[in-house]
Amino acid sequence: MRWKGILLLVILIGIAVALSFLLTDRWLEKQFESVGAAIVGAKVEIDDFDFSIFGLHMRWDSLQVTNPNNTMKNIITSGRTDFDLELAPLLQKKFIVENIQMTNVTSGTDRTTDGKIEKKVKTKSEPNILTKTIDRLQADVAAAPAWQLDELSQKVNVDSILKFLNITSPAKIDSLQNDLRATYGHWDSTFAAVRWEQDFRYLESRVRAINPAELHTLDGLQSAYTTLTQVSDKVDSLETFVTETRQDLTDDLGATTTKIGMVDDWIKDDYQNALQQAKLPSINKESIARFIFGDKVVGQATEILSLVNTIRSYSEKFKSDKPKKEKPPRFKGQTIYFVKQRSLPSFWIKNIELSGHTTRGLQIGGQLQHLVSNQKIINEATNFNIQGRRGDGANLSFLGEFNYLTETPAEKFSLNMGGMALRDVKLSNSPLLPNALEKGTGDLAITLDV
Fold it and tell me: In what order do the strands lie in the sheet containing 62-67?
């Protein structure tokens, strides 16, 4: 029997050698670049890719991911990167990595060549809540009235201004809320009146009332036919109820969506009306900050929301909309229990350890955990923790979480920066501030829940 074992070993070695010739480093490098470019929408370049089939070890010396919004810059670059694939999941076509080590990570670097790629023309989809939020933020800043510096000394009576602004949106929103309560109160009562179990028990009792032994007589057949007619009528009645209810509910949902979409227009109309009637903006910290720092704050918020929107769209690509295949009813037989294997996602990087620097000279390090195609399978959200420090005392802490475990996606971010030098920093294009600060340090704390 030994020669059979030796023969099997030789065959396995031969397969491994053949795969090592077929799966060349250059070929795999091109495949990774192609997949990355398809996801990002711009060039992804990998240098000195190395793959060892023995141990399933992968490595590359540098990575450049182009910023799709500015193809002459990289959204991220890295130096030496090492990781090992897990063999058992790979046999099930699942890409599982325990840990990735990334060094010399940075962002916002210039490219020597344009990273643009030709994209297929896509049908423009309806704007979602994130793109609507971005548009609204930009519209608010663009619609801010010009400040007349010679009138700033005038006293502004806020109460008198509010009297003639004629704000109508709160009353409209209250009316809409009442309509929604009435509509969905109707549906609550409708569904509360449904007795599915009682109907199903009735159908079951009628079917069980049919006695196969009596079907050989005319009376037995007539009785069975009457019973089946009753069952059919009941099923038709239930089907009609479900169909009509579904259509009515769909119509109500559509009407509700339309009404809710009008809220934005009501608020915008009030805002524009207020701008037309008010000669000066309210002099308070909020309005001054919005005017002076509005462009920069909205710009940063737009970048973050755009990134979140992109990540959400990528996560949707991994989800399958195919309905589950219905299993046929089991016949009588023996029940055999098997050991249930742990379900694994198709893509899962459990941990990424990174180190690098920013364009402002901060040395950074951190972790990204549970980069996964389907969070619900592992019951873990994707999170990251990045810390940075510079020799002059400047420091950075950036935490975040992408939670798609529920039907409503949720993202949380927390950014804290301390001891940041403000020399030559331009805060705003506003004429109310100097072109750039001459000296000083500053702290910044931002939290964002999307």
Answer: 44-47, 62-67, 70-78
Task: Please choose, from the candidates 353, 437, 423, 413, the residue with its C-alpha nearest in 3D space to the C-alpha of residue 102.
Answer: 353
- 89-141 confidence digits (pLDDT tens): 877 778 888 899 999 998 888 999 998 887 665 555 556 555 655 565 556 55
Q: What is the pLDDT of residue 126?
A: 57
CB 323, CB 349: distance < 8 Å: no
pLDDT of 208 above 50? yes
Pairing of strands 347-357, 95-105: parallel
pLDDT at 304: 58
Q: Would you state the pLDDT for residue 80?
A: 92
Distances (CA, A) of 327 to 57, 217, 319, 324, 373: 40, 37, 22, 9, 26
**What is the sign, positive or negative, of the torsion defined by CA atoms of 95, 97, 101, 102?**
positive
Grouping H, G, I as helix, E, B as strand and the rest as coil, residue 229 is helix
Do residues 29 and 62 make contact, with C-beta atoms less than 8 angstroms apart? no
Task: Provide mean pLDDT across the span 417-446.
Answer: 69
Q: What are phi and psi of 98, to 5 degrees?
A: -75, -45
Lowest mean pLDDT among 25-34, 53-62, 253-262, 277-286: 277-286
How big is the CA angle at 226 (ends 220 and 230), to the nearest 5 degrees?
A: 145
Sequence spans of domains, the chain: 25-115+302-319+341-449, 157-256
Longest pairwise C-alpha distance within the chain: 106
Type of residue found at 266? W
Phi, psi torsion values for 399, nearest 5 degrees:
-115, 150
Tell me how long the chain is: 450
pLDDT at 361 exceeding the cut of 70: yes
Kindly report which listed range (64-68, 152-156, 312-316, 443-447) carries the lowest average pLDDT score. Answer: 152-156
- Nearest CA to 346 out of 317, 313, 308 is that of 317
- Grouping H, G, I as helix, E, B as strand and the rest as coil, residue 232 is helix
Cβ(415)–Cβ(397) below 8 Å: yes
Please, which residues have CB within 8 angstroms of residue 128's CB and are 6 or more apart in sequence?
Answer: 309
Alpha-carbon gap, residue 378 to 349, rounded angstroms? 12
Section 221-235 average pLDDT:
70
Q: What angle do CA 5, 8, 10 make, to 5 degrees?
A: 110
